[in-house]
Amino acid sequence: MKENNYLITEKKVKEPPGSVIQKLKFLGPGFILSASIVGSGELIATTTLGAKAGYIAFWVIIVSCLVKVAVQLEFAKHTILTGETAMQIFNKLPGPRFGKARWAIWVLFVLLLLKVIQLGGMLGSTAIVLNMLFGLPVFYWVVICAFVVALLIYRGYYNVVEKTSLVMIAMFTVLTLVSVFSLSFTPYSISWSEIGSGLTLELPKEVIVVAIGAFGITGVASDEIIAYNYWCIEKGYAAFTGPQSESPEWRKRAQGWIRVMYMDALVAMFIYTVVTAAFYLLGAAILHNRGAIPEGNQLIETVALIYTESLGAGVRNMYLVGAFFVLFSSLFASNAAWTRIYSDIFGQLEWIDFSDVRQRNIVIAVLAWLVPTTWALTYMYIELPVVMILFGGAVGSVMLFLIVFAALHIKYRRTQPIKTGGPLYDVAFWISIVSILAVGIYGVWGLL
Hints:
Elements: H1 20-24, H2 29-37, H3 40-53, H4 58-67, H5 69-82, H6 86-90, E1 97-98, E2 101-102, H7 103-114, H8 116-134, H9 138-155, H10 158-182, H11 192-197, H12 208-217, H13 222-235, H14 237-241, H15 248-290, H16 299-303, H17 305-311, H18 316-348, H19 357-382, H20 385-412, H21 423-447
Antiparallel strand pairs: 1-2
Helix pairs in contact: 2-10, 2-13, 2-15, 2-18, 3-12, 3-15, 4-12, 4-15, 4-21, 5-13, 5-15, 5-20, 5-21, 7-20, 8-9, 8-18, 8-19, 8-20, 9-18, 9-19, 10-15, 10-17, 10-18, 12-20, 12-21, 13-18, 13-20, 15-17, 18-19, 20-21
């Protein structure tokens, strides 16, 4: 990290852009999330749900992509206004303190540890793709991928890899949308009535577990809502706003950078919602009709059917190359996020001084190696990528309850230095809250 944007000073103040074109230059945090989202969620969890449920659960995917954004905005808005990191927000929630930190920090610590299983499944999926391309056993590719993703974060090549990954994701997205269009010329063509059947808000009992996992992992997942705070800080939104004050200049500046953040998040939401819907429809149209359920080490081979059946067998290797970049970019973005989140957790526990640039960078560098190593070991032990990924999605759904509580607290219990948003924003916020709670409660009730 060249700039210490975690330190909010007057020297870093910058006036927000006015025009849409100028704002585009400051977008970025949302695209980093997209690099993370268009991975295990879209490529694996979404197509698996479509394969098992057919069109009937299409609404789960759409709701999942749309309803979490307002909560994400509330977290990021608070960070821009106060400069607080996500873990500082959680550490100020009401409730008992255990040792140096409050209960919420310890809960997140444990839940994120459980999500190691999900990232292990993603790492294994990436290795399976490389095995299909080059033939080297999956075990070796797991080790190589873990090493490379650690090295890139450790050495700080973030910007180069981010841009390269986003280009590859864009290419893969185009391939996916073309595949959906091409279904019209195959026996798997989709009718409007079939799409309509997926918007009836019904959910068969036998797919509830998969739906809960998919809801937790598609769109902006719980850990990605948290990670977005760090990307907003490192992009400079909070530093450009400057230290909080009562001056009209600060208020105007804060509102300007919040509008930039809104644009960043909404553009990203549009991109990943369209891609996620396309993946689901491909899974429902092709895999469900063929009775092909992605599972085990045949996962990627099965998912490849959504392309080979719609575009022809000749695109198989193109699909595998695209799948690699999608999955690897997701691993990369996740490792970058986890190193910051856990460093901040350690800071709240007072194991390190997170505000000290040198200490923070050392811990991030160590975690850059440690985190992928745990992913690799987890996959080697379990070797069930779909189950691992959906388990992580279920853990993420539980984590969303804590995030909802935190969002309500910062919106209604923390002092807001300026009034942002309006009636429309408040409606969207409460739709997000109610939807997240309803799906979570419905899922638990269905399982029982």
